[in-house]
């Protein structure tokens, strides 16, 4: 079990500092108590340490990154005890560099079966594949919410 963050899009230091902080917080972590916020991570960084995460109690924010794949193959549940922008449990935004070929291409949420509370927002990810083929309503518990993809 490890603690999550509540920083939103604000970051401290450069991309290298962001990565070191992320690695220190989530290496060998299975349950994130709070939010998993991955912001401003470079395409050269190894994110394989995220593979152990099975559950996030708050929300997941993936924004302004340029890595190709998000390695969360064992994530099964986003509980949504906290929301990003008051309603989202999964928020994926602006994960590409308009001046280069580096961009998020796959989310890698193969085992995600439940978002217990909150919605899904996935937008402005120029090279992200297959998000429109996912039946987000089957994963989201709240039938009143419409996924924004």
TrEMBL record:
It comes from the Eukaryota. SUPFAM superfamilies: L domain-like. InterPro entries: Rcpt_L-dom, Rcpt_L-dom_sf. One of its GO terms (molecular function) is kinase activity. The keyword rRNA-binding does not apply. Residues 28-139 form the Receptor L-domain domain. Pfam families: Recep_L_domain. Keywords: Kinase, Transferase. This is ERBB3 kinase. It comes from Orthonyx spaldingii (Chowchilla). The gene is Erbb3_0.
